[in-house]
Structures are given as structure tokens and as C-alpha cells.
Amino acid sequence: MSEIAQMDLNPRGAVKSESPLAMTRVNVVLAASARDAGVVVREKPFLGHLVLRGRAEDEAFRAGVERVLGLALPLALGPVARDEARGVSLQWMSPDEWLIVVPAGLEFDAEAALRRELTGHYAVMNTSGGQTVLELTGPKVRELLMKCTPYDVHPRAFPVGKGVSSVFAKSSAVIRRVDEERWELVIRRSFADYLYRWILDAAEEFGVFVSPSESAGSVEHRMAREAAVEGR
Amino acid sequence: MLHIYCPHCAETREEEEFRPKGEAHIARPVEPEATSDEDWGNYLFFRKNPRGLHHELWYHAAGCRKFFNVTRDTVSYQIHETYKVGQKPSVTADKGAAK
Ligand SMILES: [Zn+2]
Predict the structure, then answer these.
(1) Cα-atom radius of gyration of chain A, to the nearest Å?
(2) Which residue among A22, A38, A141, B61 is buried most deeply as judged by most CB within 10 Å?
(3) Which of A75, A77, A145, A153 to mutate to test the interface with B (most CBs of B within 10 A)?
């Protein structure tokens, strides 16, 4: 008989066990409808995302951006410049960096127009393939966000219109408050799967409903792109 | 948790958003080829590690992704000030803060 202590790894009694692949399954109980849910999750896929770099103190740069986007360049952290009707937004990310979001298929034209109008020291990068937007609506979204980010989402610190970049679920996200109960997350492609499952899991206690995307799937996206190209 | 004021975002944010990057105000030798091995070694590897006031470089990793300086007491962890790269600290060991 050896002196080695052996442990039985199978617990006696009912203890929940999870396979290493347990997290690859979304096994969240969804609410019956958006009306029953505290949080409604909806992806806004295939939007045009452009990262703009430039010198905020350069008057010609600011004027050029405003001519192209019809929005004044925000010069500090705070409200996201936004034209809801045209689906265009412009967010301060850093003293020399902004995030532009335009409707699906319009990113090529937006980038071309910026390159036409801007001179001097600037850069435009199309990052549409690298990130996506999740829209969260409902009376419990703020409580959900409190579980996900150390940023203060109380209205005192996070009024309607504001956008920030912060830690989110041990990853990161751009968090934007569009309305009283409507928020947007801009998330990276490589974290999208993980963050989506995190959000569903965290929102389950409030009742969560996944709403179909406006332009779900690639067919509509292609049609939007073709329409944009035809109009060019 | 430290609350750190980012001079670029102009907001006090959670420590979790930041990364410490060691001692601040380390000037790279202007002429590396003409620098002695000892001076180059000091520049690359040797740091102050004081007990008390320390000027540090921090990075706002999850926010604006800019670097800035922090004057922090390594004993109490109290942050006395934060300021942009290129600026000078106003709180230093020789003036202010009784040893
Ligand atoms: Zn910052």
C-alpha cells in the first residue's frame, strides 16, 4: 500500500459540473417578447466605422470634417455628435482621435470625401470589419451595465448623449448613451462572441430578449452596398 | 482601488482602466553612439524606486490610450497630481510634502 493520498474527484450528491466547453453554448432563458424584457439586445451589424486621427487645434481640419459629416468635431470627452436621421455619429475618443459611424455601405464614400476635404497631418482608417455595434434598450440596461463596467453609469456621471471608452467585462468597449433607456456598445470583433454571451448571461436575471437586427445577414448588407455604389 | 484623474479625458477614472509604466522623466541619451556603456545601462535598466514621492508614467489603456505623469506617494499610495507628458510636476520631494 503506497503512502499517496488519492482524492475522488466525483463529488457525492448533486453538485453542478460544467465541461470546459460549457461557455460555448448560450443557454440563457430568453424573455417571451421585448415587452416582457428588462433588457433588449439588438445588433446593428455592418455599419461603416472609420477611425479619424488629426490635430484638433487645426482649424482647417475641424472645418473639413464638419463639411463632410455635417457635424461639429467634438473637442473633448462628452456628448457624441450625432444625426439620428442620417445615421451618422462622431465621437471624441482621444485628443487626436475620433470614431465615425455611418450607415452600412457608406463608409467608402465617407472615407473618400474626408480624403478629398482634408489636408495636412491626418489619417482615416476603415475599421468596419473589426468592430460591431450592440444596442441595448430597456428599463434594466443601466443595472446590467453596472455589472459589466467600472465606469459610473449613473445619470449624474453619464447623461444622455455621452460616450466613453472603458473596461467592459474584463475586456473593453465603447459605451454610448443614446437615450434615457437606449445605449450602444461598440465592441471589437475578436471579443464580440465572448461579450455577447457575457451580456446575455448578465442580463438573464432582468429578463432578456434578443431582437432581430435591422439588416440581419449579409444579403441586405450587400444590397445596401450596391445601392450606395449605384448612387455614387 | 485608486481613482486616477486622466488629464486628457479630464475625468477621474478607475484604476482598472490604467496601466503603470514605471518611472517618469527618463530622457533618452541624445547621442546613443557616443554614450558610455554605463550611461546607456543606467538609462535602460536603473530606476529610482524611492520611498515616498515618486513621479510615474501611466497609460490610460481602456480610455484615451494616452500616456501621462502621476506624482504618487509610494508609502500612502496617495496621488498628489497628474500632468501631461512634457509638463513638470508641481509637487516634488524638495518642495512640498514633509519628508
Ligand atoms: Zn484618458
Answers:
(1) 22
(2) A141
(3) A77
